[in-house]
Amino acid sequence: MMMRAPALMFAAMLATATPAFAVTDVLTVDFGFFPQGTTCKIFNTTGKVTMRTGREIEFKIKGDTAKVAFRCSQPDGRTFEVNAGALLPQGDHRRVSMQINQDDHAHVLWDDGGLRKSIVPGILVWR
Q1: CA angle, corner 24, sides to 19 and 28, nearest 5?
Q2: Which of 14, 73, 99, 127 falls 20 to 30 Å from 54 in CA-CA distance?
Q3: Which CATH code for domain 20-126?
Q4: Strand partners, 37
Q5: Residue 70 Cα distances to 36, 42, 80, angstroms
Q6: For residues 15 and 48, what is the distance between their CA atoms, to the nearest angstrom?
Q7: Distance between CA 65 and CA 54 in Å, rounded?
Q8: What is the pLDDT of residues 73-114, one digit of tens each?
Q9: Which neighbouring-strand residues pair with 4?
């Protein structure tokens, strides 16, 4: 019996020390109001990714969204990165939408028994 108690305590400590990632089935990320010619690449996901371009760049990721990140290049040569996975709301959500804006903030929208919205400043890491 003495051997089990330390193992259980270690398991409990590990569970509380491990960061809890948000689980999102579908993540839509829209890069709005960026200069025409901006291009973006996605990293840190094995989920199914679809991309649409037009007036804005839109990515849809199904599965494996917790660590999704983007690296984008603008026509003037400047580049930036966005860690979209870090912007996900806590908890399990079926669908989350984000709009990443040129003026360094994001709108994050999700349904949690009603539409929720978070505005997150300081998200662009310029390189």
Answers
A1: 125
A2: 127
A3: 2.60.40
A4: none
A5: 17, 5, 8
A6: 29
A7: 23
A8: 999 999 999 999 999 999 999 999 999 999 999 999 999 889
A9: none
Q: Which residue has the tokens 């993540």?
A: 27
Q: What is the β-pairing status of strands 23-32 and 48-53?
A: unpaired
Residue 3 pLDDT > 50: no
Question: What pTM does this model have?
Answer: 0.80
* Angle at alpha carbon of residue 61, lines to 56 and 67, rounded to 5°: 105
Q: Domains of the chain: which residue ranges?
A: 20-126
For the chain, strand residue ranges (E) read: 23-32, 39-43, 48-53, 57-62, 69-73, 79-82, 92-101, 105-111, 115-121, 125-126
Instruction: Judge whether 93 and 23 are in contact, CB under 8 Å.
Output: yes
Counting residues of the chain whose pLDDT is more than 70, the rounded percentage is: 83
Backbone angles phi, psi at 6, to 5 degrees: -65, -40
Q: What's 13's DSSP letter?
A: H
